[in-house]
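Q: Got a minute? One more chain.
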Amino acid sequence: MKTLMINSHDLKGGAARAAYRLHRGLLDNGVESNILVATKSSDDANVIGPASKLAKLYEMLKIEIEPWALKNLRGGATRYFSPAWFRHTRLNKTLAITDPDIVHLHWPCASMLTVAQLSCISQPMVWTLHDMWPFTGGCHYSEGCDNYKVECGKCPQLNRNGNHDLSRSIWEKKSTVYKDLDLRIVAPSQWMASCARESSLLKGKNIEVIPNGIDLKVFKPVDQRMAREILGLPKEKKLILFGAMNATSDSRKGYQFLLEGLQSMEGMVDVELVVFGASEPKTPPELNLPIRYVGQIYDEVSLAVLYSSVDVMVVPSTQDNLPNTVVEALACGTPCVGFRIGGLVDLIEHKKSGYLADSFDVFDLVEGIRWCIEQNDGSLSREARLKAERDYDINQTAMKYAALYNKLRPVRSLERT
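A: Always. Here it is, folded:
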């Protein structure tokens, strides 16, 4: 069995991390896997990136031009909107060289390829929904807009009032192309699967849920005092962790809710907030407790040590699929707190491995933080680890995908073995 994954990056971003972990898991379980990317960071020989300096420059220019054009020529779309204007110049060549049984799409955005290029793929396709873009007119998260359930247009993320805007033209292009694709949809969370089933573009498609997996030998509990000593964190304080890509600037990650909640936090002394995924701003927010910024952390072992060093992880997202940070934290035995939204409902078992607060209720969010800190006699940590072992082992995830691949192309797979 041979599979070709398609993702814009190999290591940068949540979708990239999930795809690359699956790639390694497939290889470990006997499936031949390659990844086609627009920008390559690893030295993995099975990751196929731009072949020349000119090709690398072209990919870099695409990434810069698309948002600039959106902002200056198409009315000022947010950075969470991808029009997919640029072709990938080596898609057909890569398909010919790798000759895959299955093409597995992950996150082909950031100017990776056009919607029309999907028609060039003759193999059965699996598409893992890392966000909502595959079934919208261009946005990655709908942010309360339900147009994707009927027909996109008059997009609130575009500064246009007409129904026949850019989102409508992208929706129409997807509607035309999808009809002829041999496509199976996988959602990492029940919430994302539900959204896809309600969408006009994917309604009626085969949709199943396979959670993203991680390497439980890397993400595992580390002695808390030793972890704090390694990272230079205070040993006697209660530490609250918050973090994501663009942790403090991406409003969807909910940092504003955390700050508002912590402003009201009273009665707890010797508590400190640790933030990763962002550096300290010039004007830090004023809170009743210290904030320690540790910046971007790319190394997985260092991330595991960080998760192990804290008492609770807070993920106050307004919309989220199956955030890697929560899966990673649970695997390290760290209880998590978040709103009762999206894929967090799959991840956090209320008052067992963490706390699910009422949606966007900052006072309940703080109550959850307080509850986890006060109640964790070790049982929350044990349940968090057990949850990860039960549902998010990368080997289990890889085997589920391998079974799906074989179901889609059993004859050719048997001929190859």
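A: Residues 352 and 379 are 8 Å apart (CA to CA).
Q: Perfect, thanks.
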